[in-house]
Structures are given as C-alpha cells and as structure tokens.
C-alpha cells in the first residue's frame, strides 16, 4: 500500500471557505484530511501554502500528432496540460491520418500512451476525413476504446449522416460531439457577421450557421436518444436552443471556450489574424448569453479548444489565416471579471 502526505496545503471547501490543511492519500485515494496529521507515510510533500485541488479535465483539446508535429506533439501538449493543472484531456481526431478506422485509432492511442504524461482519452471520427457522408464502424471503434465520436473542425452537413451516427453512438453508449456549422451559411467569412465586420469591411460568418444546424441536431438527438454534446457554444440563439432542449428531455450537454467568455468582436481592432478562430468571436450580447448559460447550468462546462499553430500561421492577415482557436494568456487576479470568479466557485 503506497501512501503520500501533502502538508501545509490550502484547500477550497464546498462553501468556498479556504482552509490550510494536511491531506493523506493511500493507494491513490484521499484517506484523511485535517489541519495537522501526525502520521507516517511513504512520501511527504510540503505544499508551503499552495492551493491543492482535484486535477482538471479538458474535454476538448487538439494535440497535433500524428501529422502536424511542427505545431505540437503529444509529449509537449500533455506537458503543457500538466503545467496548467489538467490531469485528463480528451483529444480531437482532426489528425493525419484521421482515426476513423480501428487501425488508425489504435496508432493514435498507442502514441498517447507512449508519450503522454497525463491521461489522454481519444475521440474517433464520425466519418472518414471528417467529411464523408458514410458513418464509420462505430461499434468497432468503441470496442477499441474511443471515448466518443466527433468530426470536430467540420460540421456534419448531411442530416441522414448525423441521424445514422447518432443511432450508432447511442447503440454503444458513447456521446456524439458536434461542431455545429452549416457551411452554406459561412459564405467566405473570416469573422462574425455583424456590426464589427461591417466597420472593418471584412466578410462575416452568419451566426445562423451555428444555431440552425444545432436546431436540426437537437431534434435528431431527441429522436435517437443519443447523448449529444455541443462543442464551443457561441451564440445567444444556441444557448436558448440548448436550454429549451434540456427542458424537453433531450440528453444534451454543452461546453463554452474561454475566449467566447472573455472576448467578443469589439476586441478586434483591425485586420489582425490573432483574433481569427472558429467559431468566431461573437457580438457582446452573445458573450453575455454564454456567461449567463454557464451560470445557470445550461452550459455544463468550460473546455479550452486548445489548438496550437506555428508562428508563421499566426502572423498574417485575417484573410490569409486558417480558422483556428485563440491562445489566451493567463488572466491576472486584478483583471478577472466577477462573473468568472462566480463560475469558478460554482
């Protein structure tokens, strides 16, 4: 039996009280907690007043291996996760090759186990290349260890494909995760379609591209009984749709990314591709809606959508840069919004 004592740690209790305490862990489970524990353990760590908390879980990361190692590897991505306090992440399948067969899935899974320094659960693709209208062998991929199924980075454009994928995912008791985006409504946009895109004279992405496909999916999810999870929710209409769906018994969960909570289109001061992402930064009223949805439980979690890119891919114009996710700097205590503190405590 292995044992560990962490002494002089600060711990946040369920009522938000911050206390200093010792914690004893035996065989990976918390066994005792008290202000002072005079017990002998195999190992002792003096936290010296640092905060002790459960490992964070991120359900949406893009490690770039295999296929895009010049951006990041599984080793460096998992090391960065650990440095940020994340002990489990769920990795997206937009890789080269896309894990849409048992063979390619097992190859990625083996790399995760070989090079990851934290727990990495792997998504499998819904369909080949993230764009095929033919659904993958969901049963075989689930048996191989797929945590869930998604074509993240691409919206499933065909309703029959989505229906078949939901039925298959429900049959193996795995969530189906959706990047909701109707490509016919993107229309070459490089930022949110709204007042700011008009002011900057840049083509906009209609927010209906998100909410219209989400509405379709929620109806199909109700019919199939699948656990349907919405990635990076970003519009006020989408928040309302998820809220109504939950009230009507749809098995739906949703996430929001930090950048959609902290920034909106008014932060874009010019043709600066550092602000280009998908979904794009939305209008201020959308940002307030996702904050409200997170506070009232409509949105279930914050997920980073961690997606690193090379420097040369970032220092370009909005027109030139691919749609990616923003990398946020750490928010200092002095600038942290009060609602963010409320969400953290909640």
From TrEMBL:
Annotated protein name in UniProt: Dihydroorotase
Catalytic activity, EC: 3.5.2.3
SUPFAM superfamilies attached to this UniProt entry: Composite domain of metallo-dependent hydrolases, Metallo-dependent hydrolases
Record's keyword annotation contains Iron: no
InterPro entries documented for this protein: DHOase, DHOase/Allantoinase_Hydrolase, DHOase_cat, Dihydroorotase_CS, Metal-dep_hydrolase_composite, Metal_Hydrolase
Residue ranges of domain Dihydroorotase catalytic in the record: 49-238
Family membership: Belongs to the metallo-dependent hydrolases superfamily. DHOase family. Class I DHOase subfamily.
Job of this protein: Catalyzes the reversible cyclization of carbamoyl aspartate to dihydroorotate.
NCBIfam families tied to this protein: pyrC_multi
Record keywords, A-Z: Hydrolase, Metal-binding, Pyrimidine biosynthesis, Zinc
GO molecular function terms attached to this record: allantoinase activity; dihydroorotase activity; metal ion binding
Main EC class the enzyme belongs to: hydrolase
Keyword Transmembrane carried by entry: no
Cellular component, GO, one term: cytoplasm
Record-level GO BP terms: purine nucleobase catabolic process; pyrimidine nucleotide biosynthetic process
Entry-linked PANTHER family: ALLANTOINASE (PTHR43668:SF2)
Cofactor(s) this protein requires: Zn(2+)
Gene designation per UniProt: pyrC_2
Organism field: Weissella viridescens
């Amino acid at each position: 039996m292995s044992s560990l004592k962490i002494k002089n740690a600060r711990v946040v209790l369920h009522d938000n009280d911050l206390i200093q305490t010792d914690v004893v862990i035996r065989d990976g489970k918390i066994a005792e907690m008290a202000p002072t524990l005079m017990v002998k353990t195999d190992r002792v760590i003096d936290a010296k007043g640092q905060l002790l908390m459960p490992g964070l879980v991120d359900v949406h990361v893009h490690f770039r291996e295999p296929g895009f190692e010049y951006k990041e590897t599984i080793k460096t991505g998992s090391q960065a996760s650990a440095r940020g306090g994340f002990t489990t992440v769920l990795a997206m399948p937009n890789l080269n090759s896309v894990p849409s067969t048992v063979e390619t899935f097992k190859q990625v899974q083996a790399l995760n186990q070989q090079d990851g320094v934290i727990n990495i659960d792997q998504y499998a693709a819904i369909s080949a290349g993230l764009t095929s209208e033919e659904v993958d062998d969901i049963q075989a991929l689930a048996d191989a260890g797929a945590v869930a199924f998604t074509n993240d980075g691409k919206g499933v454009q065909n309703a029959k494909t989505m229906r078949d994928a939901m039925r298959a995912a429900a049959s193996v008791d795995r969530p189906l995760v959706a990047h909701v985006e109707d490509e016919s409504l993107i229309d070459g946009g490089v930022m949110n379609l709204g007042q700011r895109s008009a002011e900057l004279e840049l083509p906009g992405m209609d927010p209906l591209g998100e909410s219209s496909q989400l509405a379709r999916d929620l109806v199909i999810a109700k019919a199939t009984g699948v656990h349907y999870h919405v990635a990076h929710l970003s519009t006020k209409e989408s928040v309302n749709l998820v809220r109504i769906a939950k009230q009507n018994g749809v098995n739906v969960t949703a996430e929001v990314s930090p950048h959609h909570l902290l920034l909106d289109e008014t932060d874009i001061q010019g043709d600066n591709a550092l602000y280009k992402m998908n979904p794009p930064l939305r209008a201020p009223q959308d940002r307030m809606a996702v904050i409200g949805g997170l506070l009232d439980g409509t949105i279930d979690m914050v997920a980073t959508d961690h997606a690193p890119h090379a420097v040369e891919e970032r220092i370009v114009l909005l027109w030139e840069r691919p749609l990616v996710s923003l990398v946020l700097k750490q928010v200092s205590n002095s600038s942290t919004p009060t609602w963010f503190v409320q969400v953290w405590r909640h």
